[in-house]
Design brief:
By secondary structure, the chain is of the alpha/beta class. 40% of the residues lie in helices and 15% in strands. InterPro entries: FAD-linked_oxidoreductase-like (IPR029041).
Length: 312
């Protein structure tokens, strides 16, 4: 069934240029990009060194119903191929402190993990005693982790602020800022994917005004079919930038063409070049159309080579 009827019409906004900045801003902005995998999608990649540049950070998404052993095995395999691995730790999917400690011990002991994405998680009803990422961080069990990422919401989060404001989100970010200042781990915000640079720029400016200076790893959807993106965007609660997909869906000449995120990435890259203090530190790619397609797209725009090619 088509998902297009569920999209509400919005006034067209001026489109950013899709021309790649001529000064290499896009390549610099994309440099060091990261990517997300699930155990079942990782199985489709024979060797990550054949598609990912050296040093790529790979997030391992936690999928409810998938055995922790499978997620740890995925992390171990990718780490064994030379990549930094950052598994998800979703608070509402973790029944108790003992389980959290067990997961951390497995990831550290079997895969050498020292990085984690700490988030509340997508489910509304907690599996046990944890409801928020802050409760996980307060557990003290992530001692020794070199890097801890937490969630950022450029387009708001109705699960947290049901009234459409950002009051509670900002309170949480101030707490995370204070946590970053008292921990030895490097802390950054990793965001949901978005399709429009405007809300991202406004959000980053709001963070700066609130004196929240955590670096941002902005989520971008990799190349994919339009219908696939719309499905994920609705399911994940993507906000105002959903209008970008709506506009594309109404253009018959683009309806059947794969979406590529050049427009939003070029606009953010140009803004970063013009405003060096812009808080976006890195791009995180959600490979909704496949890991290989996402990696090929990013490599083509950065000039990077996969690890096997780079090592000869």
């Amino acid at each position: 069934m088509s998902l297009l009827p569920f999209l509400r019409r919005k006034a067209d906004a001026p489109a950013a240029s899709t021309d790649r900045p001529k000064d290499g801003a896009t390549a610099r902005f994309l440099g060091g990009w990261s990517v997300e995998v699930m155990p079942r999608t990782a199985e489709k990649v024979e060797d990550f060194r054949a598609i990912l540049p050296p040093g790529t950070r790979v997030y391992v998404a936690h999928i409810d119903g998938t055995e922790i052993a499978d997620m740890v095995a995925t992390a171990k395999r990718i780490a064994g191929q030379g990549f930094d691995v950052m598994p998800h730790f979703p608070a509402r999917s973790i029944p108790d402190r003992a389980t959290l400690g067990d997961w951390i011990a497995r990831y550290k002991g079997e895969a050498g993990v020292t990085q984690g994405l700490i988030l509340a998680g997508g489910r509304k009803d907690p599996a046990g005693e944890f409801r928020s990422s802050m409760e996980l961080l307060e557990s003290g069990l992530f001692q020794g982790f070199e890097r801890l990422h937490v969630a950022g919401h450029p387009e708001g989060n109705r699960d947290i602020d049901a009234d459409g404001s950002d009051r509670l989100v900002m309170e949480a970010l101030r707490w995370k800022q204070a946590f970053a200042e008292r921990t030895d781990a490097r802390v950054a915000l990793a965001t949901q994917f978005c399709f429009d640079a405007g809300p991202v720029i406004e959000w980053a400016e709001r963070l700066a005004a609130e004196r929240i200076d955590l670096p941002v790893h902005i989520g971008i959807a990799g190349p994919a079919k339009l219908q696939t993106l719309i499905k994920f965007a609705i399911a994940c609660g993507v906000g105002p930038s959903l209008g970008v997909l709506q506009k594309r869906a109404m253009d018959v000449t683009k309806l059947l063409l794969p979406y590529e995120p050049d427009e939003v990435v070029n606009a953010l890259a140009a803004h970063k070049a013009a405003h060096p203090g812009f808080g976006i530190e890195q791009v995180h790619i959600f490979p909704l159309g496949g890991i290989t397609a996402a990696a090929n797209w990013a490599n083509a725009r950065t000039g990077q080579q996969p690890a096997l090619a780079a090592n000869g």
